[in-house]
Amino acid sequence: MSGGKLPPPSSANELLDASLGNYGGPVLVVQGVLDPLNDAELRAEQFGNVREGVEVVRVQAGHCVMDERPGVVADELGRWIEEEVEKPPPME
After folding, report:
1. Which pLDDT score is estimated for 66?
2. Is 46 exposed, middle or buried (0-12, 13-18, 19+ CB in 10 A)?
3. Which residues contact 82 (CB under 8 A, 6 or more apart)?
4. pLDDT computed for residue 37 by the predictor
5. Do 80 and 28 touch, CB atoms closer than 8 A?
6. How far is CA 14 from CA 30, 61, 82, in A?
7. For the segment 27-55, what is each residue's pLDDT rounded down to a tens digit?
8. Torsion of CA 80, 76, 54, 20, to 10 degrees
9. Which residues of 18-38 are buried (b: 16+ CB within 10 A; e: fewer)?
10. Residue 27 is inside which H or E element, if any?
């Protein structure tokens, strides 16, 4: 829609909080632990503590981990997708 306004930005923990009606499915976070723009180790820990179903992989890279270590990111993503596809659906 032309001229529409974007919603206000949300933090990652808000976006991943299923109790707020947001996305509750599986998530892979590939975090560069050498990121100079934030406390990367703390950020990785916080992502991992948001809720069940969030997997954090720490990589020896900086802020743009997918540019700095594309092979590692691709391997981790491929592994994660295969594992998620093989999981049985959650029981309701």
Report:
1. 94
2. middle
3. none
4. 85
5. yes
6. 18, 26, 27
7. 899 999 998 888 888 888 888 888 888 89
8. -90
9. eeeeeeeeebbbbbbeebeee
10. strand 27-32
Neighbour-count burial for 48-81, b at 16+ CB within 10 Å, e otherwise: eebeeebebbbbebbeebeeebeebbeebeeebe
Q: What is the pLDDT of residues 60-80, one digit of tens each?
A: 999 999 999 999 999 999 999
Q: Coil, helix or strand for 31?
A: strand
Q: Is the pTM of this model over 0.85?
A: no
Residue 1 pLDDT > 60: no
Question: CA-CA distance, 46 to 43, in Å (whole number)?
Answer: 5
Structure tokens at 53: 């179903």
Measured between alpha carbons, how far is residue 43 from residues 27, 57, 92 in Å?
15, 12, 31
Q: Using CA atoms, how far apart are residues 56 and 51, in angstroms rounded to an integer?
A: 12
**Which residue, among 82, 90, 83, 79, has the nearest Cα to 25 in the 3D structure?**
90
